[in-house]
Specification:
The protein has 460 residues and is an alpha/beta fold. The protein has helices at 33-36, 40-55, 59-65, 114-130, 151-165, 184-198, 219-238, 254-265, 294-299, 309-314, 367-375, 383-386, 389-403, 409-434, 438-456, and strands at 70-79, 85-96, 102-109, 137-143, 174-178, 246-250, 269-277, 282-287, 318-321, 332-335, 356-358, 379-381. Helix 2 runs parallel beside helix 4 and helix 7 (219-238) packs across helix 8. It binds glutamic acid.
Length: 460
């Protein structure tokens, strides 16, 4: 159990891995003062406090919900290929399980911190509640950079992670899933280790598994597709046809790739994506004003979302400063990488033409940047609503695993669309009715549901 003192913001933790960065945290490298002082957990708590005031929540409920219920911080010794042992720092945080077992991904990231995992676990609670699935919120992480680990070392790390929390996670306690730089293969190694320790078959211990090994069809696409379902609904509400719109994405990992795919299928034009370039140790934006060919781009992208710059130039794509993703003259901005990307110091640079900010990443917008969006009437689709497609499909994976009957992809995506659309409509109707900003309306629905579950259980 960790203490309750927030640790330093993750930029202060860099001595662990001073030079290792990843595709997903590209723009974070444009370090500046506000980025340095950013703390995701403080942001998550302030967002909560703001809505707790709107709801006039009692003190007990506030105290319960503004902190995780349980935390596990541990060392993971890993035997490396050269025979040495390296010790990695791991986390699992269970924010709240009043509505069901804790649920949320595990991130592999060189700049991971306890506070970031705390924030992400809290956002998972609201995410599961806003789409009304019977799950709580949790998150895990390891301070590591899988770019620099062989597959065998990654397998050892996954098995080591599970060994440390084998008694604290499980189908009825806490169910992990993939997140930044973790994949279906990582999930399967973790499941296998859990099953070896517990002596049985427990497909419900983890989601995001490979199809055919307890995974759900459509899970890989789910977060990106879910994001675009909400964008489609927002456009409908604003009376704008998708075919007439342009979009700029931060990132080109799992979320952005499938979001780009569905958005272009809807007729939209993607003018920019970004990625971290491992060789140059800096981020880049990939721009094509008349529209990027997403299928072609995916073919020259590695499994971490890194795009081959030379091959991109051969396709007529301009390769330039990553920060340019934010200043593109587009209708829709989609931050789909890491937290802290829309900040006080850069939000003023967004084009006057931007009508929607759809948050594929968790926590991409700081409080100050959020205020700017509010003041400028930009339609915001908040992270824990916009990117809830992943966990919604994880829930479908649990249901299918329990029945041992797996649905066709169309059925999965149809059900996903229904869940995402009805959550979006509920939030936007409340926002209109009560004159609330979209993020606040989503929080009102989610916090009310979780607070009610805590009350019904007699916890508060
Ligand atoms: N990691 C994803 C998220 O942040 C999915 C979590 C899950 O499927 O449990 O929503």
């Amino acid at each position: 159990m960790g203490d309750r003192t927030p640790t330093a913001p993750y930029t202060h933790r860099m001595p662990f891995h001073p030079v290792l960065f990843t595709a997903q945290n590209a723009s974070e490298r444009n370090i500046n003062m506000s980025a340095k002082s950013y703390n995701a957990f403080e942001t998550a708590q302030k967002q909560f406090d703001n809505v707790a005031d709107i709801l006039d929540l009692d003190q007990g409920t506030r105290d319960l919900l503004r902190w995780p219920m349980r935390e596990y911080h541990f060392n993971i010794p890993v035997r490396m290929d050269d025979g040495t042992t390296r010790v990695f720092r791991g986390f699992r945080v269970q924010h709240n399980d009043a509505r069901g077992p804790s649920k949320g991904g595990i991130r592999f990231h060189p700049a991971e911190t306890a506070d970031t995992v705390r924030a992400l676990s809290m956002w998972m609670t609201w995410k599961c509640a806003v789409v009304d699935i019977p799950l709580g919120g949790g998150k895990g992480g390891v301070i590591c950079d899988p770019h620099n680990l062989s597959m065998r070392e990654q397998e050892n790390l996954c098995r080591g992670w599970i060994r440390q929390v084998a008694k604290n996670v499980g189908p009825v306690q806490d169910v992990p899933a993939p997140d930044v730089m973790t994949s279906a293969q990582h999930m399967l190694w973790m499941m296998d280790e859990f099953e070896a320790l517990h002596g049985g078959r427990y497909p419900g211990v983890i989601t995001g598994k490979p199809v055919g090994m307890g995974g759900s069809r459509g899970r890989t696409e789910a977060t990106g597709y879910g994001l675009i379902f909400t964008v489609r609904e927002a456009l409908k509400q604003l009376g704008i046809k998708p075919q007439s719109t342009t979009a700029s994405f931060d990132g080109f990992g799992n979320v952005a790739q499938y979001a780009c795919e569905l958005y272009t299928q809807m007729g939209g034009t993607v003018v920019c994506v970004t990625c971290w370039d491992q060789a140059d140790n800096k981020p880049y934006a990939f721009i094509k004003k008349d529209g990027l060919d997403i299928a072609a781009l995916m073919k020259i992208t590695d499994r971490f979302g890194g795009i081959d710059k030379g091959k991109a130039r051969d396709l007529g794509i301009e390769v330039t400063e990553a920060a340019q993703w934010l200043t593109q003259d587009v209708d829709i901005l989609l931050p789909c990488a890491l937290e802290n990307q829309l900040r006080e110091d850069n939000i003023g640079g967004i084009s006057k033409g931007v009508k929607i900010v759809a948050e594929g990443a968790n926590g991409p917008t700081t409080l100050a940047a959020d205020q700017y969006l509010k003041d400028n009437n930009v339609f915001n689709i908040p992270d824990f609503l916009a990117n809830a497609g992943g966990v919604t499909c994880s829930y479908f994976e649990q249901v299918q695993s329990n029945m041992n009957y797996f649905w066709e992809k169309d059925e999965v995506l149809g059900k996903l669309d229904l869940k995402m659309t009805s959550a979006f409509v509920a939030v936007s109707e409340l926002a209109k009715k009560q004159g609330l900003y979209m993020r606040d309306a989503a929080y009102v629905i989610a916090i009310n549901r979780v607070a009610e579950a805590c009350r019904l259980r007699g916890w508060v």
